[in-house]
Every structure is written in structure tokens, then in C-alpha cells.
Amino acid sequence: MHKTYYIETYGCQMNVADSELIAGLLQQEGYRETGDIQASDAIFVNTCSVREHAEERVHSRLGTFKSIKENNPNVIIGVLGCMAQSLKHDLLENKPYIDIVLGPDSYRRLPALLNRQRKSAGIVDTHLSRFEVYDDLFPSRGEGINAWVSIMRGCDKFCTFCIVPFTRGRERSRSVDSIVAEVRQVVADGFVEVTLLGQNVNSYSHEGYGFARLLTAVAAVPGLKRIRYTSPHPQDMTEDLLYVMAEHDNICNSIHLPLQAGADRILKRMNRTYTREHFMNLVDRIRTILPAVGLTTDIIVGFPGETDREFEQTLGVMEYVKFDSAFTFKYSPRKGTKAAEYQDQVHPQKSQDRLEQLIKLQKQHTLIRNRQVVGKVQTVLVEKESKRSSASWAGRTDSNKWVIFEKGAARIKDFVSVEIRDARGVSLHGNIIGEKRK
Ligand code: SAH
Ligand code: SF4
Ligand code: F3S
């Protein structure tokens, strides 16, 4: 009988990619994945610390794991990922039912730890490495359209609100060769799209290769229909990169460009290293070189000291840019970060009001942007069945908008030309007017 594992993932796409890496390691050891948590020999949770809410969700899941362990003392419980650091002390003091705690740079140890005779105390490894990039491991991805490919790890930006540089350590990049080899492999495995991942993808740097050159190399992989990447930092957006995007059909015409805030004083306090003017000029440059580009963003409200006037400046940048969509967050103080020490924290109700205002504005902008493509023909990659109707497909445009359309003769992974008829809510609706082979 094979041993089985169950894994649950929280947080960003890097964590999704890491869970695939962990799955690969476990499968090499003869473990098989199960969806049945009660029957599994090992239960893992890959955790996120980015906001308090993310940590709370994991804490509540741990309660469930604890009761599973009470019924079945042989099950191994492992806590992985960004919360490892914060859970280390909690675990040693209060959570004896957790067997393993591994931080993002320690996953190689997992097979050895599973094989080792269980000790009475938990095993903790939250050491962050300056070198670990998991170059030689084979993530287990299952099937799909898109494969996540991590190109770098860690972050050196130290935005004052952000825990990531502490949970993931210093920035380090994989070699171009190993990334290209992995992309070739995922294409051979049937994936047609890759998303290159890093906390700061555009500060990628390996032996003289920057992100623009890496993208060029990846774009040349035969059979790869689409390339996306996330997240770039506004400070590291180069014209080179924009031209590489413009020159290659298979690099998607969309950029996730985190704004965070629109007032210079707040940006400075956040250590974002750009001004509102720099950001708006950058958007102009992007739209000159990449017309019809899809632009999305992340915005935080209620950062310590943010005044009403400064919040309005964030709305002002949004008005200027009119993002296609935005992820919006209430500031959440993270222990150990600089901003958590600031004395002038914004009242939660105030942050809530600002958040609601911001969401309302973004909805209007999303609708404006979506209406701009009504009547146009878009190249859409068929990705899955629509949730609403089994007679329709859902797929994305180059600019990263979801489109719903009747299936016709199209199959999953086909490129189709869709004439957009209607923009309602966040999705577009259209009709196939032709199949497109690339
Ligand atoms: N490296 C990525 C973002 C990683 S975290 C980047 O720089 O774009 C994803 C988003 O979470 C951030 O862009 C930010 O908007 C939000 N975020 C990070 N820390 C936060 C905090 N303490 N409170 C609220 N939102 C936060
Ligand atoms: Fe966090 Fe800033 Fe690094 Fe993004 S760039 S991971 S927000 S420190
Ligand atoms: Fe969360 Fe860690 Fe990603 S804190 S957002 S899982 S890098």
C-alpha cells in the first residue's frame, strides 16, 4: 500500500507553485495524493502571513487537524510556508500535535523527515537560504492550461507594510537554462500557457540576464501559446521589457502593476521607491508601447497616517489610470515590519469606509474598460466550461479578461476569435467568429 498525503494551500501563486514542488518531492518518496483528509497518512498546510486574516484561517484549520490527530495519532501533521516563522514559537509551546514545521527554503528536507522515526517533539526548520532556488526538482502539476513556474525566490524591497522579505528571505534568481528547460517540459506535458512567478519578477537577474532577456528566451520555446508573469515592481519596469512584450505575440498584453497608494508621502513611508507622478508616467509609457494593454493593480487603504486627502489621491491615480481590475486590501499590521511600529494607525472603521469607496470606484472602471472591447474581436484561449452553462466555454483575452461564449466546435486549449457583444459585471460575453491557429 502506498502512503498518502493531503495538502491545502493558502496565499499567493508562489505558494501554489511551492505546493506542486512539495507534491513532487512526496511522490518521489512513493506518497500519493488523496483528497480525503481523514484517511491520509500525512496532512500538510502551506501557509500565508501576508495579512492577519490569512493567518487566522490557518489557525482555524489547525483546530480541525488537531482533532484528526486525536482520532489517529499516526497521522503526520506538517505546517509549511510563510507562517512557519511565526508558528515556530507557538508550536514549541502550545501545539504538540504538529510534527513538522518547514519554512519556504527547507522543503528538500521533507522526505528525510518523513522517513525518520518520529520523535516526541516536533521538527522545525525555518532557516532561510541565500541560495536555495529548487532548480533541480520536478514539481507535480497535474493537468491544465497554465503552469506556474517560479523564476526567483525572496524579496529585497522591504516595503514597510510587508512580511514577505522576512518569511521568504533574500532575493535570488534561477538560471535561464533551468527555467527554459522547465518551460519546455511543461509544454511537452500538455500545458499551453506559463506564468512566470516571483515576488518581484522584473528584478530577475542571473549571470547578466535580466527579466527582458529571460522573457525573450521563454517566448522562443516551441508550442508555448501564452506567457504571463506576476508581480513586477513599478520601479523595475524597463522599456526593454515593454518592447520585448510588444514584439512577441505569445507574451500576453497585460501587466499587474501594484500601485499600493497614490500619495507621495504614503508611498515614501511604504518605501515603495516611486512617486505618484512616476507611476502615472510609467502607465503612459506602457500604453504608448503596448496599446490595449490590460492593467491591474494592488491597493492598500488605511496605511498608518493616511489622511482623507491622501486617500483621495489614491482615488485620483485610479481615475487617471482606470485599471481593468484591482485587488484591494485594508492595511493589516504585521509583527516585525516597520509600519507595524508606526504610532498613527488608522481606525478600522475608517479603513473599512475607504475600502468600500475604492471598491465602488474600481467597479465603475472595470465596466468602462470592459465596454471598450465591446464590438471588437479578441483572441481567446479556451480554458474551461463556464460555471453558468455547460453549453458555454470560458477563456481569457490576451489582456487577461474572462470571456463567456457558446462552445461551437471549439475545444479546450484552442485559440478562437471571439466578437465581444456585451460587458456585464466582470466578464465579457461574445460569439466565436473563427478558429485561430497559432
Ligand atoms: N510582491 C508583490 C506582492 C506580494 S503581497 C508585489 O510587490 O506586488 C500581495 C499584496 O498584498 C501586495 O501587493 C499588497 O497590496 C498586499 N499586502 C502586503 N502586505 C500587506 C499588509 N500588511 N496589509 C494589507 N495588504 C498587504
Ligand atoms: Fe512585499 Fe514589497 Fe517585496 Fe512585494 S515588493 S513582496 S510588497 S516587500
Ligand atoms: Fe503569503 Fe507568503 Fe505569498 S506571505 S502572499 S504566501 S509570499
Alpha-carbon distance between the termini?
45 Å
Strand content bin: 15-25%
Alpha-beta classification? alpha/beta
Question: Could you say which overall geometry the principal axes of the C-alpha atoms support?
Answer: globular
Task: Count every helix, treating DSSP H or I runs of 4 or more residues as helices.
Answer: 12
Tally of extended strands? 21
Please state how the strands of the largest beta sheet are arranged side by side: 2-1-3-4-5-6
- pLDDT < 50 stretches: none
| Overall residue-averaged pLDDT value | 95
Give the fraction of residues assigned to helices: 25-40%
Reported for the largest beta sheet, the result is:
6 strands, parallel
Give me the Rg, rounded. 23 Å
Features:
438 residues, alpha/beta, six-stranded parallel beta sheet, globular, binds S-adenosyl-L-homocysteine, binds iron/sulfur cluster, binds FE3-S4 cluster
Topology:
Blueprint: E1 4-9, H1 13-28, E2 32-33, E3 42-47, H2 52-71, E4 76-81, H3 84-94, E5 100-102, H4 110-115, E6 123-125, E7 146-150, E8 152-153, H5 164-168, E9 172-173, H6 176-188, E10 193-197, E11 205-206, E12 209-210, H7 211-219, E13 226-230, H8 239-247, E14 254-256, H9 264-269, H10 276-289, E15 294-301, H11 308-321, E16 325-330, H12 348-371, E17 377-385, E18 392-397, E19 402-406, E20 415-424, E21 427-436
Parallel strand pairs: 1-2, 1-3, 3-4, 4-5, 5-6, 7-10, 10-13, 14-15, 15-16, 19-21
Antiparallel strand pairs: 8-9, 11-12, 17-18, 17-20, 18-19, 20-21
Helix pairs in contact: 7-8, 11-12
Bound molecules: S-adenosyl-L-homocysteine, iron/sulfur cluster (SF4) and FE3-S4 cluster.
